[in-house]
Structures are given as C-alpha cells and as structure tokens.
Design goal:
Elements: E1 6-13, H1 16-32, H2 37-57, H3 63-66, E2 71-78, E3 82-92, H4 96-108, H5 111-124, H6 136-144, E4 149-154, E5 159-169
Antiparallel strand pairs: 1-2, 2-3, 3-5, 4-5
Helix pairs in contact: 1-2, 2-6, 5-6
C-alpha cells in the first residue's frame, strides 16, 4: 500500500469514535507532509464529508450479506499530483438509480453552476431519504474541484457495493 501511495485505509464498522480517530490521524499526517494550508483544508473538508456520508447515509444491510450491519471501507492516498479518497459501502439496489442520477447531475455542472445548485438546495431545504440536506455530495464536488468517479458492483438481487473516488489535485482551483 505504501508503494501505491496509500497513507490510510480502513475496513470495518463505521462508528462515531472511529470517525473522530481517523480525522485526528489525518490531521497529523497532513501536518507531517507539510502540505500547503489550502490543500490541507480541502483534503480535510472532503474527508469529513466522505466519512459523514458513510456514517449517516449507509443503507442498513442484513448481516448475512457481509457479517456486519455498518461495514464500509475507505482509503486515502497521496501522489505527486495530490490526494485521492476512496469510499465503499453496501447500498440497497432500490437506491442505486437515485444516487447514480444525483452524482451524474452534479458531475454535469460547471463550478459556478455547482455553487448555485448548492445555494438552491440549501435555500429549499431539500431532504435526502436519510434525513440529511443532500448537501454532502455537492460539497465534496465543490471542494475537490473534480468530477466524482463512482461504480456500483451488484452483489445480489437486493444489494450492491457503492465505490466513490474523489481526487484533490495540487493545482489551483
């Protein structure tokens, strides 16, 4: 993993204590890399949103599928070009098309359109199925300045595995 630039990876149950620990570890790692404050802030902000999405918006999957109810993965990598954050979690197939549509809509927007869409969702008080404002994925796209990469791996008639990859480059944007 070190040769691939992976600086932190996790597979298991997502808990609030885990999120706190991971964020502290990453803050220390970013400090140790002597990263530019602007890049450090972007990476940290996107990581917070990604981990909150995992924690708050993960579908409840029967334990016979994966042995755990709140199991997920995430990895953070560093290359010369910047950082990548990859998350993976189980999702009910009935929710795949809605999430895919939302990400595709977000990816189709320009930087300025994304900013306006964020304000519109905030003003309209739109709620996601899980009770959140639906702003997390928009904010991830805004802060990273890159298109969101994703994949859904079908595991059964009822469940898929959702992979989200976010790039944060060192370029100014």
């Amino acid at each position: 993993m070190e040769n691939s630039g992976i600086i932190l990876s996790f597979k298991g149950d997502i808990t609030s204590d885990l999120l706190t620990s991971v964020l502290q570890i990453m803050e220390n790692r970013l400090d140790s890399f002597q990263e530019e404050p602007k890049i450090k802030k972007k990476v940290y902000h996107v990581l917070v949103e990604c981990l909150q999405n995992l924690y708050h918006h993960m579908d409840e999957i029967p334990s016979y599928i994966n042995g755990k109810d709140r199991s997920a993965i995430f990895m953070i990598g560093k290359t010369d070009e910047g950082y990548s954050i990859i998350t993976g979690n189980y999702i009910l197939n009935e929710n795949v098309s809605g999430l895919k549509k939302r990400i595709d809509e977000i990816n189709a927007l320009t930087k300025e359109e994304l900013k306006e869409y964020y304000k519109q969702v905030l003003a309209n008080g739109e709620m996601s199925l899980k009770g959140g404002g639906g702003l997390g994925i928009i904010d991830i796209a805004r802060k990273s300045g890159e298109k969101l990469e994703y994949e859904f791996l079908s595991l059964s008639n009822n469940v898929s595995f959702f992979i989200l990859k976010i790039k944060i480059t060192n370029k100014n944007n």
